[in-house]
């Protein structure tokens, strides 16, 4: 490794992994933007913005988590990871079972990250949110109606993110499967 103080740069960059990540983002963003547009009734520009934001942030957070966890992995998993990254093959058959388990965990963690990120973006980018609550009279019926609408919107948001994440993961899995068949 090339040393820069405490920061070290690898001598070999996994260009294939970087390009695949870029390809995955290029696939996931339009799919998820389309789902956000159709299900949450955002306009196309807003849907694309939210899809880009949640995918880039969740991807970045995912890579940070990976780079934190990677040094703690056992040597055999590290060698399998290197073997797959550079040669697209596994040395052991048991690794594929572990990969399926890990992919399931990644799917649900990504789903949760995207849900909370989208919720954060929607809440933080509302311009008239304080004015909305200042001008409304407070009575029990109105509070109940507002809370039931918020619950419905939250459920709709969860369902939409789950559908969008499932579709994008399915498309990405299909591409990985096709790339493994061709090599």
Automatic annotation (TrEMBL):
Membrane-spanning parts: 12-36, 48-69, 98-122, 155-178
A UniProt-annotated Pfam family: FraC
Keywords carried by this UniProt record: Membrane, Transmembrane, Transmembrane helix
Listed InterPro entries: FraC
Protein name from the UniProt record: Filament integrity protein
Species annotation: Nodularia spumigena UHCC 0039
Lineage: Bacteria, Bacillati, Cyanobacteriota, Cyanophyceae, Nostocales
